[in-house]
Amino acid sequence: MKNIDVFLGKKGDDLKRIFIISDGTGQSAINLMRACLIQFEEQHVRLTVFSKVNTKEQIESILNQAREQKAFVAFTLVKKELRRYMHKLCHDYEIIHHDILGPPVEKLSNFLGAKPLENPNLLRRVDDKYFKRIEAIEFTINHDDGKNLKGLKEADIVILGLSRVSKTPTSFFLAQLGYKVVNIPIVPEIPLPKELFEIDQKKIVCLVMDPEVLQKVRMERMKHYKTTSNYTDLKRIFEELEFVYDLVKKNRQWHIVDTTNKSVEETAREIISCIYGREQELY
After folding, report:
1. What is its EC number (predicted)?
2. 2-118 matches 132-276 in fold
3. 205, 259 in Cβ contact below 8 A?
4. How many CB atoms lie within 10 A of CB 123?
5. What is the spatial distance between Cα 156 and Cα 153, in angstroms, rounded to a whole number?
6. Where are the domains positioned within the chain?
7. Rounded to whole angstroms, what are the CA distances from 171 to 138, 176, 214, 279?
8. If pLDDT is split at 50, 70 and 90, which confidence band does 8 have?
């Protein structure tokens, strides 16, 4: 059994205490509590998370603390026997409590006509997926727009592309699916980093867009800028795209995806299909 404290709002003597008790990591309960607490202004709360709780003795020890500290108790326990014991002690100790997992599992059991497996390891897998997605998002943020090439070999996908072809939005969407993404801008006058050619080349995707559509996108971006650059010049855009196509011809393991008039979701699915052979989620 482990326990950690998470403070929401300011620390102080007026903190309200919430105990989260779980036979997994407790992340699902934390997410629910945060979603609920955001509806209350100026609430200062200490969440104490007790994870990997799987015996009645542990439950009794925790609830004794909850009673002393007048805490609210929320719990996710997959075993019916432990849930019933938790309810009984909470009633005996007059502790305000909420069973997060029990009611929906029991209703689904009645609806499906099947008994739940009551395996806490299954819930941990869900929590593991959550943490892996968070890790992927943090990795992708840190490797946006070529600003950091450290860890390039750890990337699941490397996106190359000209300015405004949807590199960053696509990268972040893929990160939410659990993919670690690095995106690197292509500028004809600037050589691509040598590190790019030292990784698995099948993970590299070049994004392109119809020249006239790309011009409109860039013109929209430049409305608030005063500049005389050729950034929106159609001839220049044609030259940039030709440069990209030449790159792909020279690097035959690279993939190319056209983002013209596609949603980020469509582009992401196509990228996954190119690299991994079919649409899937890593985690």
Report:
1. 2.7.11.32, 2.7.4.27
2. yes
3. no
4. 20
5. 8
6. 2-118, 132-276
7. 12, 9, 18, 16
8. low
Q: Long-range contacts made by residues 36-39, C-beta under 8 angstroms, separation at least 24?
A: 37/8
pLDDT, position 85? 97
d(CA 27, CA 123): 10
Residues paired with 184 in a beta bridge: 160
Binding-site positions: 161-168
Read off the pLDDT band of 94 (50, 70, 90): very high
Domain 132-276: give its CATH code.
3.40.50
The residue among 42, 48, 35, 38 whose CA lies nearest residue 7 is: 48
Looking at the DSSP bridge assignments, the partners of residue 158 are 182, 204
Alpha carbon distance, N-terminus to C-terminus of the chain: 26
Question: How are beta strands 45-51 and 2-8 bridged, if at all?
Answer: antiparallel
* CA–CA gap between residue 140 and residue 172 (Å, rounded): 7
| Known binding-site positions for ADP | 161-168
Q: Which CATH number fits domain 2-118: 3.40.980, 3.40.50, 1.20.1440, 3.10.530?
A: 3.40.50
Strand duo 16-22 + 45-51: pairing: parallel
b/e string for 191-207 if b means 16 or more Cβ within 10 A?
eeeeebeeeeeebbbbb
- What pLDDT does residue 83 have? 95
> What is the chain's length?
283
Mean pLDDT of the chain: 90
Residue 260's pLDDT is what? Answer: 97
